[in-house]
Amino acid sequence: MSHKVDRTSKTYHNGSGVIRRPNPNLGFGPHLILDGYGCSKPSLQDLNKVYKLLDEIPNEIGMTKIMPPYVFKYSGAKPEDWGLSGFVLIAESHISIHTFPEKQYLSFDIFSCKPFNPEKAIGYLEEAFSIKKSEIRNIKRGKEFPHYSRGESIGIGKHLAEEERLEKRVLRHKTINF
Question: Could you tell me the CATH superfamily of domain 4-172?
């Protein structure tokens, strides 16, 4: 779906003819979802590397880690489905990763109640795991979640512009569509 923000009138066009004025006091936050393909098998099976990534990435993107990362090895019903899963709780929500070394695949997400630089997180992952192909989505969560004067809104217009920029980035990558 194509989203457009008219910066002069601050209206939101969702591609279906619906026009809304965004309310800067609504919206919970961004959720970055990345599926990585063709990743480095040794990196995907390295528990210490996954731990280090989860330990460092909150600081890299301006988040507040509230506990050390938790990473564990999982053995699936099928031997090729084994991998590592890990998460770190952040004051803003969470960051998680699941690796499948035999399939050279990882799934990763960051959910936050405040904006962050998704490009920085994506670059960090691409470098750490030598990702060859990726599917990247950056969605808005809790579009009707109210913010009051005590908190700072992410601003739907700003977030939509970021989403459009990421959509263009995804088009530059080879993606697998199901």
Answer: S-adenosylmethionine decarboxylase (3.60.90.10)
Question: Residues 39, 40, 43, 113: which is the catalytic one?
Answer: 113
What residue spans define the domains of the chain?
Answer: 4-172
Assess whether 3 carries a catalytic annotation. Answer: no
Q: For residue 105, list its beta bridge partners.
A: 37, 100
User: What's the angle, vertex CA 36, arms to CA 59 and CA 89, rounded to 5?
Assistant: 35
Please tell me the pTM assigned to this model.
Answer: 0.69
Q: Which of 98, 107, 130, 173 is catalytic?
A: 98
- Could you confirm whether 39 is annotated as catalytic? no
Q: Name the packing angle between helices 47-60 and 118-129 (round to 10°).
A: 160
Give yes or no: 112 in active site. Answer: no
pLDDT digits 0-9 by tens, 80-136:
999 999 999 999 999 999 999 999 999 999 999 888 999 999 999 999 999 999 999
